[in-house]
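Researcher: Let's do a round of design. I'm pasting the structure tokens now; please hold your answer until I've finished.
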């Protein structure tokens, strides 16, 4: 299996779910820049430029690259130092970012040990999934209320909440900036490097997982 796996795809396509499952199964580090930003948010002292970036995040806008690089590369160094492979989830959302990560991996001698997997999903389907998403504040479990109603977290019984950036306006903003239109250039960049595999995200989680595993060998 490749040492570095990068998931791309629109918000709501299931990158996080797949990344979590794979990381657990293979003992890889899981770097979700969204999660790192939410962790930063829960910290006590924020610099003003960080606080501003997090306000933008709540509105569904992308946060500045410097913050993404700072958080993602620090986490990556930690994983690599302990010999772990890494699964990046949502860490690449523009071609400048894709190029910066390639430079980082090349510097570590890892440019060839890399697979990029796009979980393909239409913006319409993504919007529906995001609007149906609920998150447990206690254990972080993510559930969909689309097909089944949950009163509380099915894992720990705590209260489920809506992510601030899963509001209707923020979902539209996220899909404008991070949806399929934004993915065209990123897809092309990785295709040219011969690194891209595409998996249909409109299938059961287990089936997507099976195809992802085939793609990253
Ligand atoms: P996610 O949890 O992956 O859906 O990310 C939540 C939000 O974090 C996004 O809507 C962006 O505001 C921000 N974010 C996460 N990753 C990135 C990135 N690579 N570049 C810019 N903003 C990001």
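Researcher: That's everything. Go ahead.
Model: Designed sequence:
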């Amino acid at each position: 299996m490749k040492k570095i796996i990068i998931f791309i795809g629109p918000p709501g396509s299931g990158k996080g779910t797949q990344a979590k499952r794979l990381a657990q199964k293979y003992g890889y580090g899981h770097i979700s820049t969204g999660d790192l930003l939410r962790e930063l948010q829960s910290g006590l002292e924020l610099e003003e430029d960080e606080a501003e970036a997090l306000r933008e995040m709540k509105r569904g806008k992308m946060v500045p690259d410097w913050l993404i690089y700072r958080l993602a590369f620090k986490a990556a160094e930690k994983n690599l130092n302990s010999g772990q492979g890494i699964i990046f989830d949502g860490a690449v959302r523009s071609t400048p970012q894709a190029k910066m990560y390639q430079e980082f991996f090349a510097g570590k001698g890892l440019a060839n040990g890399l697979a990029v997997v796009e979980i393909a999903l239409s913006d319409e389907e993504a919007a529906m999934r995001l609007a149906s998403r609920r998150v447990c504040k206690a254990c972080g479990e993510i559930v969909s209320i689309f097909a089944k109603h949950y009163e509380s977290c099915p894992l720990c019984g705590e209260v489920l909440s809506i992510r601030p950036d899963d509001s209707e306006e923020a979902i539209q903003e996220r899909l404008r900036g991070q949806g399929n239109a934004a993915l065209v250039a990123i897809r092309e960049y990785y295709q040219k490097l011969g690194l891209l595999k595409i998996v249909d995200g409109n299938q059961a989680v287990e089936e997507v997982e099976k195809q992802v595993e085939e793609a990253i060998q």
